[in-house]
Amino acid sequence: MTRFGIIGGGLMGHGIAVALAQAGHRVVVYDADPATLASLDERIVRALERCDMLPGDAGLVTARITAAKTLSDMVVRVDAVIEAVPERLDVKHQVLEALEAKIPAVMPVWSNTSVLSLTEVAEGMRHPQRLVGVHWWNPPYLIPLVEVAPGAETDHRFVREACDVLNGMGKTTVRLHRDVPGFIGNRLQFALVREALHLLEQEVCDPVTIDTVMRASLGLRWSAVGPMENADFIGLDLTRNILDSLAPHLSAAVTFPALDEPLNAGQRGRASGGGLLTWPPGRGEEVAQRLESGIRRNLVGP
After folding, report:
1. Which of 85, 135, 182, 206 might form a disulfide with 186, Cβ 3.0–4.6 angstroms?
2. Is the predicted pLDDT of residue 302 greater than 60, yes or no?
3. What's the pLDDT score for residue 301?
4. Which of 92-101, 107-116, 292-301 has the lowest mean pLDDT?
5. Residue 207 domain flag
6. Same domain, yes or no, for 153 and 262?
7. Which parts of 111-218 fold into alpha helices (H)?
């Protein structure tokens, strides 16, 4: 596979296109929204600037990415297709149905779903054996990890092929044994988010304090030593004793008042100017730059 089609040119779609093109692959991006396609080149250039790529090298990368105005125009130019549309089953089912009507049965299809069950995403497909969950992390051109998972009917040949391509790009590839909603990373991430919301609801602290604790302690440690290695490092007996004491107090909530209250007031976070925190003009761009700078620092290492 050297020619990839991407359905969905938004946040993840354009980032995946950049990651593939940086590795030498040719990419054709299709999006049903003309405005998204119209801004594709500009967003790709900005992404490459954030990668500190020299203009000459950036030009080689951008030349490998083209836009397609129709799905039919895209599929005739590619060897594999990546679905990167919104995380709604109905949308993914519609897109995959339209795609399968235009491609041969042997063409690999990757889904970038981050939370949905791949088995459910594959429901209704004519050839579900070719669908592989390939979850890239944002921004895909910076974060090395890609999670790869089969659905219940996936032929593992397609899983192996996906891993081979990603490994050849220099990505850190992890392969799940079976389909599970959220893969690994998002299950870990949102278990932490749930506990953070629980602390807010119990009036233990405010949102800024939670972020300070994460950035000044756990965030520094976890980039070097993961939770399983740390459990062994401190001793499984100590780990068990801590859990015996702490686990009964941890959240098992399935409702989230700390989110519902601002949402009911029309506060969605950055996009609305307020949420758990306040978002004055310019803060969103500052956070995006700080995020990518922090990722690059961690990738360089000590």
Report:
1. 182
2. no
3. 58
4. 292-301
5. yes
6. no
7. 118-121, 156-168, 185-201, 207-213
Residues 130 and 190 in one domain: no
Our separate counts of H helices and E strands in the chain read 15, 8
Instruction: Report how far residue 156's alpha carbon sits from residue 148's, in angstroms, rounded to the nearest whole number.
Output: 11
User: Which residues, at least 6 apart from 291, have a Cβ–Cβ distance to it below 8 Å?
Assistant: none
Can you read off the two tokens belonging to residue 239? 């780990």
The residue from 117, 152, 175 where one domain ends is 175
Phi, psi (rounded to 5 degrees) for 182: 90, 0
Where does a domain end: 124, 148, 175?
175
- 8 Å CB contact between 117 and 145: no
Phi, psi for 21 (deg, rounded to 5): -65, -35
CA dihedral over 138, 139, 144, 147, signed as positive or negative: positive
CA torsion angle for 98, 42, 15, 115 (degrees, to 10)? -60
Asked if residues 25 and 113 have their Cβ atoms less than 8 Å apart, the reply is no
Q: What's this model's pTM, rounded to 2 decimal places?
A: 0.93
Looking at the fold, whether 10 and 81 belong to one and the same domain comes out as yes
Same domain, 29 and 104: yes
Tokens matching residue 208: 């800024």
The pLDDT mean for the chain works out to 95
